[in-house]
C-alpha cells in the first residue's frame, strides 16, 4: 500500500498497553490490579441522586468540591490538591508541567511502563535506573544529575515499597528538580508521602481512586503538592482540557471519601488475602517480591511464566506477564477475592503437576 503523503506528519509513538479487558464477565480477572470488591455503598446512592437535568451544565472547572473533600481528609489547604481523569491523566499533566529540562528524567528500569511513553510523547529525555538484584530502588542513584524523577511507591509490578526515610533522601538530594511519587497502590500497606509535601516543595504525590477505592471505571486521580506546583499543574490542565473531572464522577468520588470505615475494611481484606495467597504460593515452591500492593509478583525455578499465563487463561483466569528481559520469568497476579484466589491456586497446582514441575 502506498503511504498517504500526509501520513509523514503523524506522530510515531509506541503506546502503553493496558491489561486485557475481556468482553465477558465470566473470567477471573487478575490482570489489571482492580479491586475485587464494590465501591463504598454511598457511591451508589450518590449516583442515583444525580439529576440528569444538571448534566447540561459544565462541571466545576477545578473540581472544587472534590478537592475540598480530599484536602479535608489529609488536613491540607485545597490549593495543595489537584484532581483529573484518573491518575494517568494527572501523571501525564505532571510530566508536561515539571519535566522541561534537557537533563534526563530518572525512573527505575522496572516500573510502570507508562512513564517512558509520556516521555516519548512529550519529547522528554529520560534514563532508566537499574534496580538492585532484589528489584529494590537504590535511593543513591537518584542523586545523579536529572531533569526530574518519578517513582511508583509501591513500585509496579514488584509491589516493593520505599521507606519514608528513603523517599526523603531522594527528595533532599534533588532541590533543583521535581520528584513525583506515584502512590496508585499506597492503600494496601505502604507509608504515604503526602505528609512530606509541607517539608519538600519539590514533591508531587499522585494517587488514584481506581485501586483502593474500587472506582477504576470512574477515572479519578489526584495529586498533592505545594500550592506553587498545584498552580502550574492547574494551568497546564487548563491549557489542555478545562473540565477533566465530570460532575457525576466528582459526586461519586466525594461519596467514596465519606466512608473511611468501608475503605479501610476492604483494604484490610485485600491485604489479608494477599498474605494468605503469598504463603500458599510459597508452599508450592514460588518465590516473590515483598509486595505492599494489591498484587503479587511471582516466579519459580523451572517455570515457563508465559506457559503458566496461557494455562491460566485456558481456565478463564487472567494474570499479567511482561516480556521485558529481567522480569519475563515472573507473573503479576492481582489479589482477588478468597474464592478467586482458591481457583487460581488450584489452577497453578494443576499446571505444576501436569508439567511435572517439583
Ligand atoms: C503505578 C501506576 N500508576 C498509575 C496508574 C494509573 O491509575 P489510574 O489512571 O487508574 O488512576 C496505574 C494503573 O494501573 C499504575 O499501575
Oligomer: single chain
The chain-level mean pLDDT equals 96
Shape: globular
DSSP strand content: 5-15%
Work out the radius of gyration.
21 Å
Number of domains: 2
What is the fourth-level CATH superfamily of the largest domain? Type I PLP-dependent aspartate aminotransferase-like (Major domain)
Heteromolecules bound: pyridoxal-5'-phosphate
**Major β-sheet profile:** 7 strands, mixed
Strand runs, count: 12
Instruction: Spell the H/E element sequence.
Output: EHHEHEHEEHEEEHHHEEHEEH
The amount of helix comes to 25-40%
**What is the CATH topology classification name of the largest domain?**
Aspartate Aminotransferase, domain 2
Main β-sheet, spatial strand arrangement: 2-8-7-6-5-3-4
Give the name of the CATH architecture of the largest domain: 3-Layer(aba) Sandwich
Count of helical segments? Answer: 10
Structural class: alpha/beta
Describe this structure in words.
This protein is of the alpha/beta class. The chain folds into 2 domains: 5-38 and 261-354, Aspartate Aminotransferase, domain 1 (Alpha-Beta Complex); 42-259, Type I PLP-dependent aspartate aminotransferase-like (Major domain) (Aspartate Aminotransferase, domain 2, 3-Layer(aba) Sandwich). 35% of the residues lie in helices and 13% in strands. It has 10 helices and 12 strands. A 7-stranded mixed beta sheet has the order 2-8-7-6-5-3-4, with helices on both faces. It has a 3-stranded antiparallel beta sheet with strand order 9-10-12. Helix 5 (164-172) links the parallel strand 5 and strand 6. Helix 2 (64-74) runs parallel beside helix 7, helix 3 packs across helix 4 and helix 8 (260-283) runs parallel beside helix 10 (338-354). The longest helix has 24 residues, at 260-283. The termini are far apart. The mean pLDDT is 96. The structure holds pyridoxal-5'-phosphate. Residues 33, 86-88, 112, 152, 156, 182, 184, 208, 210, 216, 221 line the site of pyridoxal-5'-phosphate (PLP).
